[in-house]
Amino acid sequence: MELATVGAALGAHPILAIIVTSIVYFWLLAFYRLFLHPLAHIPGPKLPIITLWYEFYYDVILGGKTLEKYPEWHKKYGPIVRINADELHCMDPAFVDTIYASASGGRKRDKSDFYLRAFPIYESCFGTADHDLHRLRRASLNPFFSRTNVREFETSIKQYINKSFDQIDSYSKTGEVCNLTLAFVSLSIDLITYVAFGWDRGYANHRDFEPNLFGPLRASMGMAHALRHIPFLYPLMSEWIPESVMLKLDPKMSEWIMFEKQIFQTVDDVFDSKQEWSKHEGHKTIFREILDGNFPAQEKSRNRLKEGAREVIGAGALTTSTAITYLSYYLHANPSTLEKLNIELETAIPDPSNLPPSTELEKLPYLNGCLHETLRFSCGIASRSPRVPHEQILYTSSTAPSTYNPTGKQYTYTIPARTPMSTSPYHMHNNPDVFPEPEKWMPERWLDADGKRHNELDIGFLPFSKGTRGCVGINFAWMVMHIEAAMFIRRFGRRMRLYETAADEMVYDHDCFEVGHASNKGIRVLVD
Ligand code: HEM
């Protein structure tokens, strides 16, 4: 059949024409992606390379299930794998510092647009794609989260923790079940809002820790894959679905809506000079830090501040509280480790009402080992978190046999500039080459033969990510976790039991940006 005849036949049948054109387009695109694309020399599974619908199916339809495929792909294709048309994933711990590079030597790292679609807060630090703009925005947060500045809050933090633990204590000998997950998330949000915005909503003052933001925060994490794959979803939800409909769909959203309104009102008050923050609250809020900074006017807009506030809550609330929740579970599920920690803390803190400064707590090796092991399990972020290097990179693997390169083959790739690359903390934290028997809770793995902390495992430890885009709240998080853990164990370490909390509420089930669990009932305990 001649081409003109085919053209005439298709012209007469528009639907057929659309179908034929789509099929031809699909095959041409597949051919390009497999054989002509700048990443065609890097191996990976064919279907995900040909089409993003693969990832859509596993992440959006099945719910965060692509991540589980990576180990199998790496075993087949080596330590660097092309996971879709444009992106690479790495399982080589030695390459992590190249992907998540610091700014030294002028190395620039953007964030990938595809990744950021899941978190549409483009005026925040977290949501900024461009390296240079991010550096500017990050400079506005660094002083606030410096080690010196966060220590200013130590006394208030202890007061908040004490108040919240009084609520947990009220369950003592009542036979009532206390939900620690809700307790810790409520405390975490009260602490962050107080420190960053100068107020709190008193979530930790309620005995049942209701209302709280656990449900809405978890739900927003659960939306991440859909938002990434369906670009119109966020505008649709935020601009077109009325608040009343949202509330019908999920009544627990009401507290979230009130919470956001209070944040936004705070920003408006700061702008309209209704509130002189430094005088009013006795400490500098994050808003005041940004407004006082020497930054261009567009970096001090209302929207920039509002998105900055959302980022601090989104990034800091569940991460810290999940870690402490994991700690309390794993200690109680492993009584011998709890006993060791009890002994270390009873020796270091003879009088629990007189807690040493956090700098002293950070030196306690077993507590520190427990927190590292906790973060290895809780991950912070489980998902891949791509960086986009501005420069071309040469990758050469080691020839020592390893889990993801069992034959010790030497892989050498030239990776073109602007290729999104990542690793996944969940897989790195479970890499047996770094963490033998990774499924086992072993705080001892972080200590040397003399019981002192060593740093040999830090190469595969990524809860806060690394480099220019790593967690800005890391000092605050370590300080809070050390104080909270020490106070919790000193107060409840010998008088708490898990109640009907199975391991499957703790272990990884799916990727919802964070570690997703099969059940969201939370850690429940009885207090003696
Ligand atoms: C255990 C607790 C925490 C963990 C595991 C954690 C983890 C992380 C990780 C992995 C990132 C990088 C995200 C990416 O790669 O895209 C990040 C960024 C960030 N975190 Fe944390 N975080 C914690 C606590 C906090 C706290 C308490 C705050 C603030 C109060 C905070 C604020 C931020 C902000 C603002 C960013 C964005 C930084 C930037 O893009 O420059 N985090 N965090």
Automatic annotation (TrEMBL):
InterPro entries: Cyt_P450, Cyt_P450_CS, Cyt_P450_E_grp-I, Cyt_P450_sf, Cytochrome_P450_monoxygenase. Signal peptide: none annotated. Heme binds at residue 471. Its cofactor is heme. The keyword ATP-binding does not apply. Keywords: Heme, Iron, Membrane, Metal-binding, Monooxygenase, Oxidoreductase, Transmembrane, Transmembrane helix. Pfam families: p450. The chain crosses the membrane at residues 15-36. Belongs to the cytochrome P450 family. This is Cytochrome P450. It comes from Periconia digitata.
